[in-house]
Structure formats: C-alpha cells, structure tokens
Amino acid sequence: MKARPGLWRPVYAVIERDLVKLWRQKGRLLSALVRPLIWLFVIGAGFEATVGGGEGSYRSFLVPGVMGMAILFGALLGALSTVYEKESGVMRMLVIAPFAHRWIVFAKMQAAAISAVFQALLLLIILAVLGDLPAHTDWALLALGIFATAYACAGIGMLVAAFSKTLDNFAAIMNFVIFPVFFLSGSLYPVGNLPGALGIAAHLNPYTYGVDLLKHALPQPTGHDSDFAWTLDLAVLAGFTLLAFAVSAWRFSREQAYAPLFGLSQRAASKAK
Amino acid sequence: MSAAILAQSLVKRYGDFTAVAGLDLEIGRGEFFGLLGPNGAGKSTSIHMLSSLVQPTSGRAEVCGIDTQADPVAVRQRIGLVFQDSALDRQLSVWENLRFSGLLYDLPLAETQARAEHLIRLFGLEEKRDKPVGSLSGGQRRALDIARGVLHRPEVLFLDEPTIGLDLPSRRRIWRFIAQLRAETDMTVLLTTHYLEEAADCDRVAFIRGGRIVLQGEPDALVRDLGSDIVEVSADQPESVRAELEAVLGPARVEFETLAFRPPRHDAAALAALTESLGARVRSVVVRRPNLNDVFLWVNQ
User: Fold this and answer.
1) Which of A17, A99, A263 minimises the CB distance to B73?
2) N or C, which end of chain A is more exposed by having fewer CB within 10 Å?
3) What is the 3-state secondary structure (H, E, C) of B28-87?
C-alpha cells in the first residue's frame, strides 16, 4: 500500500496561489483599499454635513465598519474565485488530486480569509497613517476580530460558491448577498436603530457580529457603541464559520457542485431534461 | 495482480438520459487501451466514473484493485487524468502550473522540480517555462496538460481525447510525446478518441456506442476479421448502379456519392468485368486495405 499523501502541501498550494494572484492583480488590491476609504471620506463627510454632530464623530463611527468592509469584500471575492475556477476548469486540477473534496473547501476558505486579513492589514496601516485609529485601540482584540470576521466572511462566500454554477449571476450575488450583508450590519449605523424586520435581519447576519467585534477593538472616544458582548460576537462568528464549512464541504463532496467541469455529461443531462 | 482498470456493469443516468449503459472492461497492467466512439457515446462519462469523479448510478469500478467508490482518494493517488478540456491555470506560468500540481500531490519541491524540468524538455516547452499559459498555442497547452497529468508518475493514465481540436502537426507531436512517456514508464494508458486511426497503436481497443461496448479486440485482429479488402465505388448517381454492384459485391454502405463494399472474397477479374460493364456510370473504383474506421463503420451498419 502506498502511504496516503499529506494535506499540508496541497492546502499550502491553494493558499499560496491565491495570494500570489492577489498580489499580481494590483487593480483588485488597489480597489480593495480604495473602496473602504471612499466610504470613510465621502459617506463619512456627507453624513456629518447632514446630521451634524461633533467634528469627525460619524467618521470615527465608520472606522470599524470600513475595516469590516475591507474584510468582507476581500474574503467574499476570494471565496467566489472558486466559482471562477469551476468555470475556467482550473478546479479540475483540484478535484482529481488525491484528497477528499472537503479539503478544497478548507483550503479555499483559508486562502480567502488570509487574503482578507492581508487586505485589512494594509487598510489598517493607511488608517494609522491618516490618524483615524482610536487612541484606545485594543490590538489583541483587533487581531482576533479581523481573523474571526475574515473566516466568517469566507464562510459566506464559500456557501455562495458552493451553490452557484457560474459567475454569470455575479451581479445578482452583489445585489442579493454582498450589499444586504454589508448594509444590514452595524457598519453604517448601530443595529439597535434598525426597525422591525431589518433589525431581525441584521441580528441574523453573521457579519453584524464581526463589525461589532471590531467596534469593541476600536472604541470610540464618545463611549461604546457596540451592540453585543464581544464574547457573543466571537461565539457567533466561530459557530457560523464552522457551519458554513460543514455545509459547503458537504456540497463539494457531491458531484453536482462541479457541474461545469464535466461538460459532456452535463450537456447530456440538460438534453435529458 | 489485480487489473489496472476493472469495470462491471457501470451505468450512469442523468434523469431519463442514459450516458453509460452497462460498461464492462478489464484492462491489464501496462496495457495501452483505446476506448473509441463518436461524440456523446459515453466515453468521457466512463472515464469520469473510472477516475472516481462521477458516481455510477449502478455497477462498480476498480483501479489497481481499489474500489472507486470505497476509496476515491487512493484511486486518485494512482491515476493521472488529462481532461478533454484544459485543467491549467491560465494566469500562472508553465512552471507555476507544474509546481502547483506537484504540491497538490504532496510531492517534495525538489522532486517536482526535477520531474517538471524533464517533462518541459521532453515536450519542448523550454522557451515557455516562465510564460503564462495564456500565451501558449493549443498544442503546447495540451502538452502541458499531459505533463501535469503524469507529473506524479501515475500507475494509470487516462487520456480523454488528447488530440481533439488540434491541427495535424500538433496531433502528431502529442502522439510522439505519449509514445515517449510509454517508453520510459510502464504505466497503463486508457485513451479515448474519435480519430480511429490514432488508436491503431493501442494493444486493444473497444468501440463504445450508446453507452455500451459493441466490439473489442486487438486493432490488427479486428481489421483482419473484417476479412477482405474494401471496394469503394463513387458515382454521380450511386443508386442507379447500386443493385448491379450489390449482386456481385454484397450489401453496400452508402456514403454520399460513394458506395462501399466488403466483398466476401477478392476477385480481381470479376471486379474488372463489372467496372467494364458499368463504364461511364461510375467515376472511380478503388480497392484498398481496411482500417479501424472500416471496422467501426461496418460494426455500426
């Protein structure tokens, strides 16, 4: 009997490849940084002009939210590259490799989360240079918050990737996944202010707890505006990450998840319908 | 020693459509086996089932004695699969693709490097080593796909239509690469193709049609069993001469303006007399040796 191949090299390979590609796609990296900064400057300044309040108070409220945004977009787009890989056929290299297919999900989630952390760190440096980081930043909690949020967001992306066959519906994914997840969180306003159904949706949104955890780590001078205990935030994020992994891994263990890869059989299947 | 590939009554259905309708195969170690048939005959689906990627609706398969459903990882460890469509990452270079594949098979980097450099040289990709795959020609890309498929030295290699969509020089080059690979290893190769002339070098071939094997054997023996030379008569109005010809040569197979016959025995004198009597009503009469294409066409008659 041959020894079973190990898992470290394959998992490392997937992570390394995604990071190398991110680094080479300077446009993607740049927009990942510019997007949150635009929100911080434009929305921050705009709202302050509208509703008043202290100088820079809304802008400083937005800091955890834009950190979360960098993580959310970074992790989600990273995980969604799985769909692109199904379409372009690169996924063939992964499905024929000698490991259970749940490890593809594991590796892609790691890659998505790590590239999100990387993007968050770059943004953090810019925010520090701009002087937007609060004086009482809890660095340990911030590190924890960035990682926990990145994994949960990678989980959201993986769930979408596991169930969508093509990127044709990317606009739909933007509209029905990324925007609701972002807007129905505490990024732009405290969750407590959201009425009725929106409030419930925000409470069900795992990303809400990520932003909340970042608010704990980046406390505002005016006092805490977080909605939940940081331990609850962490528990929800960890629980959701595990659930998202389990569901995506189950999905990826079924051949339907690879539909575009087996062109002939699928064409035959659609003919049969 | 167990067979390299064993399939017992493999069936794959998609809804009402039956892609593979009971495939039985036994391929020995080191054998070069061709699975032949037209597009949509179920060749790719068969390969996907044999390589553990697609679950059979019923039946079972083994690779090197390992059940594909009981232990798919052990099966994938022993096989290489060159898909009909490329599996390469177009954004990465030739070397980066091989490096990535080597890591996926848990090969130490030094081993991947040594093996990759050898394959890059063997397949003439030296100048493209650090170029993105997107800049490669179709033939070069297919060569790299094959290199990727054999990088980890599989015991069994599946080649799904390795020359499809390539021009003739590229096809010839791919065949030379495959012959070189077979010469340096003792791996079993299962090839699918619908270019039947390419399967003439196989140890054995099987014709698959409608998801079922209709004929199998050694290519030479199959051609020999066809028994006779093929007589091809072309005419402007083939139907007008068909009856006369069939009386002497047996049933015809009509292909556009050509009638093909497989006369029970070769009788040059009778054929000459017949040609004489038909005169200008036929354009040409050709007698030639049969090949695998003929076997396939007559089998499906």
Assistant:
1) A99
2) N
3) CCCCEEEEECCCCCCHHHHHHHHCCCCCCCEEEEEECCEECCCCHHHHHHHEEEECCCCC
Question: Which CATH number is B160's domain given?
Answer: 3.40.50.300
Based on the fold, state whether residues B27 and B84 are members of the same structural domain.
yes
φ, ψ at B255 (rounded to 5°): -135, 100
Task: Give the one of B74, B90, B104 whose C-beta lies nearest to A94's C-beta.
Answer: B104
Q: Are residues B129 and B15 in the same domain?
A: yes
Least confident of A18-27, A260-269, B207-216, B233-242: A260-269
Model's pTM, two decimal places? 0.89
Where in the sequence is the domain holding B176, given as residue range(s)? 5-218
Q: Rounded CA gap, B59 and B20, in Å?
A: 11
Judge: A7–B106 Cβ closer than 8 Å, yes or no.
yes
- B165 & B43 share domain: yes
Task: Note the residue count of chain B.
Answer: 301
Torsion angle of the four alpha carbons B199, B200, B206, B211, in this order, in degrees rounded to the nearest 10? 30
B281 and B214 within one domain: no
Of the pLDDT bands very low, low, confident and very high (cuts 50, 70, 90), residue A15 is: very high
Residue B163 shares a structural domain with residue B270: no
Q: Which of B103, B141, B161, B164 to mutate to test the interface with A (most CBs of A within 10 A)?
A: B103
Give the C-alpha separation, A151 to B297, whole Å.
58
Residue A250: count of CB within 10 angstroms of its CB:
13
Mean pLDDT of chain B: 90
Last residue of a domain, one of B156, B189, B218: B218
Query: For residue B107, what are its two tokens?
Result: 């090969």
Alpha carbon of residue A110 to chain centroid: 11
- CA distances A223 to A57, A60, A134, A136, B297, Å, are 11, 12, 11, 11, 84
Mutation pick from B91, B104, B157, B194 vs chain A, by most beta carbons of A within 10 Å, is B104
Residue B240's pLDDT is 80
Which residues in chain A touch residue B12, judged by CB atoms under 8 angstroms apart? 265
Residue A97 forms contact with B (CB below 8 Å):
yes
Q: How many domains does chain B have?
A: 2
ipTM, interface predicted TM-score of the complex:
0.89
In residues, how long is chain A? 273
